[in-house]
Every structure is written in structure tokens, then in C-alpha cells.
Specification:
Number of strands: 0
Radius of gyration: 23 Å
Order of helices and strands: HHHHH
Distance between the termini: 75 Å
Number of helices: 5
Structural class: mainly alpha
């Protein structure tokens, strides 16, 4: 009788432990998804800025050389690619292939922005003032993006550590939870002047 009670007690402890581990993993996963919302907001601001600069440049019709036209027209496809990758990541922000595509699109947008700024400066004073104002906005956006990306990376790393621990790895495998992917740490450094 005493041994039977001990077995039930161990079984009850095991069941409560599994439920607790599962809830912890779900909470960490939800925290990672919540941290992605800040990253998404910053990416949308970057998309808006890229499109706005492309429209302003197009309206002024000051693009004369082939290299300047190329830099100008690279803004819109970069913005479109970033927005498409962002839409994919919005529904599944922890899938490695989705985050890798978003990271790549973000790096491409940064390169397009650098080319635009380098080729747009020096045309005339009004253009330089506009480009400098947009560059200040871009740098502010980059500071916010670096912060929100670091928070997302931290949340995903906490989630990944929890999944890698022995007892939780069994629960994660049984429930189909998989480790998430973080952004590259040096991706934001591409925009440094």
C-alpha cells in the first residue's frame, strides 16, 4: 500500500513537472514573438523611409548619371524585398529560414541605402540638406533597430537555452517545439558611416 502511494506521488510529480516545463517553454516562445513585434515596427519604418526617399528623388528628377539611377532604383526593390521577408517572418518569427531571409533582406536594404546616400550627396545644396535630414532619421532608426534586434536575440537565446536543457528537451521534442534563429550580430554594423 505504501509503495503504491509512492508510485502515485512520483507519477503526479512527473506530470506536474512536464506541464510546468511545457508552460515555461511556451512562455519563452511567446516572449520571443513579442520581442519580434518591436523589430517588425522598426523594419516597417525602414521600408517607409526607403520608399519615401525613392519617391522624393523621383519627383525631383535630378538623377542624371547611370550610377545614380541605379542607386535610386535600388531603394524600391530593397524596400519591397524587406517588406516581403517581413510578412513571412510576421507569422513565424522563430523559423531559421525565415529569419535568415529577413536578415539578408535587411542587409540588402542597408547596402542600397549606403549607395543612395553616397551618390545623392554633392548634387546641390537642397538635395544635400534633404539627404542629410533623411540620413539623420536613418541613423536614429538604426539605433532603435539595433536595440530591438538585441532584445529579440536575447529572448530567442533564452528560449533556445531552455529547449536545450535535459528535461525540457524531451518535452520540446514531444510537443514539436524547435529552437529559434537569431539575427546576425554584425548586421546592424553595415550602416555605420
Amino acid at each position: 500500500m505504501w509503495i503504491l502511494s509512492l508510485e502515485w506521488l512520483v507519477l503526479a510529480g512527473l506530470v506536474f513537472w512536464v506541464i510546468g516545463a511545457f508552460k515555461r517553454l511556451k512562455r519563452l516562445r511567446a516572449g520571443s514573438k513579442q520581442a519580434f513585434a518591436a523589430v517588425e515596427a522598426q523594419f516597417m519604418q525602414a521600408v517607409d523611409l526607403l520608399r519615401n526617399c525613392a519617391r522624393v528623388q523621383e519627383l525631383k528628377e535630378r538623377v542624371s548619371s547611370v550610377s545614380q539611377q541605379h542607386a535610386h532604383h535600388a531603394l524600391l526593390p530593397s524596400a519591397d524585398l524587406l517588406e516581403a521577408a517581413l510578412q513571412q517572418a510576421k507569422s513565424h518569427p522563430l523559423r531559421p529560414e525565415v529569419i535568415a531571409a529577413l536578415d539578408s533582406a535587411w542587409q540588402g536594404a542597408q547596402v542600397a541605402w549606403q549607395a543612395y546616400v553616397q551618390l545623392a550627396c554633392g548634387q546641390d545644396d537642397a538635395q544635400d540638406a534633404h539627404v542629410q535630414a533623411q540620413s539623420q532619421r536613418w541613423l536614429q532608426l538604426m539605433a532603435l533597430q539595433t536595440h530591438s534586434t538585441a532584445q529579440f536575440n536575447g529572448a530567442v537565446q533564452d528560449y533556445n537555452r531552455a529547449i536545450a536543457q535535459f528535461p525540457a528537451c524531451v518535452v520540446a521534442r514531444l510537443s514539436g517545439l524547435k529552437a529559434g534563429c537569431t539575427f546576425q550580430k554584425d548586421a546592424a554594423l553595415l550602416m555605420q558611416p
